[in-house]
Amino acid sequence: MPEQRPARRTPAMDALSQDTKSRILDAAESLFMEHGFEATSLRQLTAAASVNLAAVNYHFGTKEELFQAVLTRRLDPMNQERIDLLERYERQAGTRPLSCEKILSAMLIPALRLSRDERRGGKDFLRVLGRAYADPAPFIRNFLSAQYAEMISRFKDAFQKALPHLTKQELTWRLHFVMGALSYTLAGTDALKLMAQVIPHDRDNDEMLLERLAPFLAAGLKAPLGDTKKLELASGD
Amino acid sequence: MPEQRPARRTPAMDALSQDTKSRILDAAESLFMEHGFEATSLRQLTAAASVNLAAVNYHFGTKEELFQAVLTRRLDPMNQERIDLLERYERQAGTRPLSCEKILSAMLIPALRLSRDERRGGKDFLRVLGRAYADPAPFIRNFLSAQYAEMISRFKDAFQKALPHLTKQELTWRLHFVMGALSYTLAGTDALKLMAQVIPHDRDNDEMLLERLAPFLAAGLKAPLGDTKKLELASGD
DNA sequence: GTCTATACCACGATAGAC
DNA sequence: GTCTATCGTGGTATAGAC
Question: Cystine design at A35: which of A39, A80, B54, B73 (Cβ 3.0–4.6 Å)?
Answer without folding.
Answer: A39
